Amino acid sequence: MVDKVVIVTGGGGALGKAIAAAMAAEGASVVVNDLGVSLKGEGGSSTVADMVAAEITSAGGRAIGDATSITTFDNAQQIVQRAVDTFGRVDAVVNSAGILRDAIFHKMEEAEFDAVMKVHLYGAWNMSRAAAPHFRQQGSGAFVHMTSAAGLIGSIGQANYAAAKMGIVGLSRSIAMEMQRFGVRSNCIAPHAFGRMIESVPGLSPEQQEAYMAKRRATTRADQVAPLAVFLCSDGAKDISGQIFGARGNEVYLYSQPRPIRVLQRGDGWTSQSLASTLPGAWRSSLTPLERTRDVFPWDAV
Q1: What CATH code is carried by the domain that includes residue 246?
Q2: Catalytic: 212?
Q3: Catalytic one among 161, 212, 253, 255?
Q4: Are 155 and 290 contacting, i.e. CB atoms less than 8 angstroms apart?
Q5: 299 lies in some domain
Q6: Residue 123: domain span
Q7: Is 202 contained in some domain?
Q8: Which of 14, 24, 59, 198 has minimal CB crowding within 10 Å?
Q9: pLDDT band for position 210 (50/70/90)?
């Protein structure tokens, strides 16, 4: 990552901060973008991004703080231009910014859905689109987007968050395919790291919540995800694009992507009645159950 310039959105949070610090430690110049808002996206302070940048600088790295919102395209262009004006170019964007507005679906308000979409999905699109012309002109570049098991597998009370995170998967895949000829890569990471995005876990007593959090702090640290983000932005991953990775504790894994797994054909076509009499029995064992993340990852992280 020596001499590369990286923008990390959400760079003041646990995960974003760890990624920004890891990028700088590998020799990259970093734009730490963070509004300094609460988990719900409320408030805001430019000091959060500036403090992370100052820590990086004190450790011998190169970084600047930026508190511009990523929820509009004009703002995203300003962030990218600031990277270019300050460091001379931009080589990678890590879309890590996020908020939560958890609510059961039938009680979720439009504003709760919209706010999460604006930060996660629109934010990722805005930043990626703003950087794309620079990547195209120089014939290189890397995007890393944070998705989530909430979208890939499922989560209760997070329809807005899950929808945004699955949208990011489609966005990343399209970027990877369309910008391949310009030497630009795009990948996703679904992190299992302790941070703000997991501090809102419904259904647990205070005692259970604290025990859960203590375990997560010890076994799923943000600094264990950061190396994967650095790798995907580096030249070492020059042939890897359009993929979905996961990181949990000392584990790194690759997610499958939707492909047809079973086919039913009927020469005279299908009716709803013939489907009802054939499909459930034929495909019952192949249907994806309504699992949660804890069902898919039943073992402890180490």
Answers
A1: 3.40.50.720
A2: no
A3: 161
A4: no
A5: no
A6: 5-254
A7: yes
A8: 59
A9: confident
